[in-house]
Amino acid sequence: MNLAKSAFLLIIATILAKILGFAREMVLMYAYGTGVYSDIFITSMNIPTVLFAVIGSALATTFIPLYHESLEEGGEEGALKFTNNILNNVTILCIIISVLGFIFAEPLVKLFAMEFTGEKLVATVKFVRIMIGGIVFIGISNIMTSFLQIKGNFFIPGLVAVPNNIMILLSIIISSMTGNIYIMAVGGLLGMISQLLLQLPFAIKYGYKFKRTLDLKDKYVKKMIIMVAPVLVGVCVDQINTMVDRSLASGLGDGVISALNSANRLNWFVMGLFIVTLTSVIYPTLSKQSNEEDKEGFIKSVYTGINSAILLVLPVSIAAIILATPIVRILFQRGAFNDRSTLMTSTALVFYAIGMSGQGIRTILDRVFYSLKDTKTPMINSIISVTLNIVFNLKFVKIMGYGGLALATSLSFIICTILLFFSLKKKMGYFGEDKIFKTFIKSLISSFVMGIAVYMSYTTISGRLGTKFIGDATSLLVSGIVGFLVYALLIIILKVDEVKLIEHKVKNIFNKKNLVKN
C-alpha cells in the first residue's frame, strides 16, 4: 500500500509536469512551428542532455543499490559519506564536460546535426554555449533525486520538470515577443538550475549534509566504477543511436526534427506517466530485496512491475495509433503549426506507438538486472538494439522517410525486449513468466476490442460534430472514455491478477472504515 501511495503521488506530479511540458511544446510550435528556429532550439537542448545522459544513467542505475550496501555496512554516517563522495566526483566531472563542450561546441553540433550549415549552424553553436553549463546542475540534481527516492520521497523528484518547463515556456514567450531567439537558450539554462534548487531543501530535510569528501579509492566508488563501465558503454551506444537519428532527420528537410521530437514527446508522456513512475517506485524495492536475498519478494516485484506496465501501456499504444491525427491536431495545430506539421507529427506518432509497450517493458527489465548488480546484460542488449536500429534506419528511411526512423526505433525496442526476457530466464530461472504471458494475452485481447470501440465512437461522433477544435476535442474525449470503460470491463471479466489485487485492497479499505464506524 505504501508503494501504491508513492506511485499515486508520483503520477500526480508527473501529470502536472507533463501538462506543462506539453504547454511548452505547444507554445514553441505556435511561435516557431516545425521550422528552423524550432530545430535549432530542440537540437541545442538535446546536446547537454545527451552529454550528461552517460553520467545520469550510471548514477540512476548504480547509486541506489550501492547506497543500500553502504547503509547496511556503515550506517547513516557511512551512507552520507558515500553520497558526498559521489556528488563531489560527479560535480568535477560535469565541470570538465561543460568546459570541453563550450570549447568544442561547433564540432558537437555538426555531430548531432550534420546537415546544419550557415546561420542555422552558427545560431545552434551559440545556443549550446549558453546552455552547456547546465550539465553541472543536472548532475547534482540527479544525485538528489536518487537520495530522495531512497528516503521514500518520490513526489518532489517527480516535480523537477515543473520549474524547468516553466522557465523554458516563459523564455519561448519572451523570445517570440522580442524577436530575440537566444532568450530561449537562457531559459533552458535556468530550467536546468531550477531542478536542483527545488530538490536541495528537501534533501537537507531528509538528512543530507554536505561534506568535502573526495576519495577515488573508496571501495564503493571502485564498485560503482566496475558496475558503471557496462552502463557507460550501453548509454554511449544509445546516444550514438540518437545522433544517427537526428543526423538522418536533419537531411530530410526543415521541420522533420521538430515533427519527430513532438511525436516522441507524446510517446514519452506515456513513458513518463506510467513507466518512469513504476521504475522510480519499484527500483529501490528491487535493490533492497536483492541485497537482502529475498528471492520470493523479488520475483513478485518483477512480474508485478512488468504486468503493470503491460496493463497501462498496451491500451494506450493502440489508442495512440488509432487517434494519432486528432491528438496531434488538438495539442499542436495552431499558429505556425499547420496541416503539414500535423501530418508529419501524427505519422511519426503512429510508428513510435508500435514500440511503446516494448520500450516500457525493456526499461523495467533493465532495472531488474541493475538491482541484481548485473549491468553487463543491459549493455549487450543496448548494443544489439542500436545496431538493429541503425540498420533499420538506413533501410526504412529510403522507403518511408521520417516515418521509417520512428518505425526502426519501435522494431528495435520490441526485438531487444524479447531478448532481455530470454536473458532474465537464463539468469534467474523462474521469474513469473507464466503470469506475465497470461496478463499480456488478456491485455492484448482487451486492447484490440477497446481499439475497435474507440475507432467506431470517434468516427461516429466526429462525423456529426466535425473536426474543428470543439468537435475534435469532444469526439476525442468521448471516445477516450468509451475506450477506458470497455478496457476496464474486459480486464475485470478476464480476471487479470493485478486487477483482483486492487479489488481486494479496495475492499479491505472499506471494511476497515466500516469497522471504525461500528
Describe the structure.
- This protein is mainly alpha-helical and 518 residues long.
- The protein has 19 helices and no strands.
- The longest helix has 68 residues.
- The chain starts with a helix and ends with a helix.
- The model has no long low-confidence stretch (mean pLDDT 83).
The whole-angstrom Rg is 23 Å
> Given the C-alpha coordinates, what overall shape results?
globular
Helix content: over 70%
Major sheet attributes: none
Integer average pLDDT: 83
Number of helices: 19
Distance between the termini: 24 Å
Which residue ranges are poorly predicted, with pLDDT under 50 across at least 5 consecutive positions? none
Order of helices and strands: HHHHHHHHHHHHHHHHHHH
The fraction of residues in strands falls at under 5%
Number of strand segments: 0
Structural class assignment = mainly alpha
Q: Can you summarize this structure?
A:
With 518 residues, this protein is an all-alpha fold. The chain has 19 helices and no strands. α2 crosses α3 (105-112), α13 packs parallel to α16 (402-428) and α17 packs antiparallel against α18 (469-493).
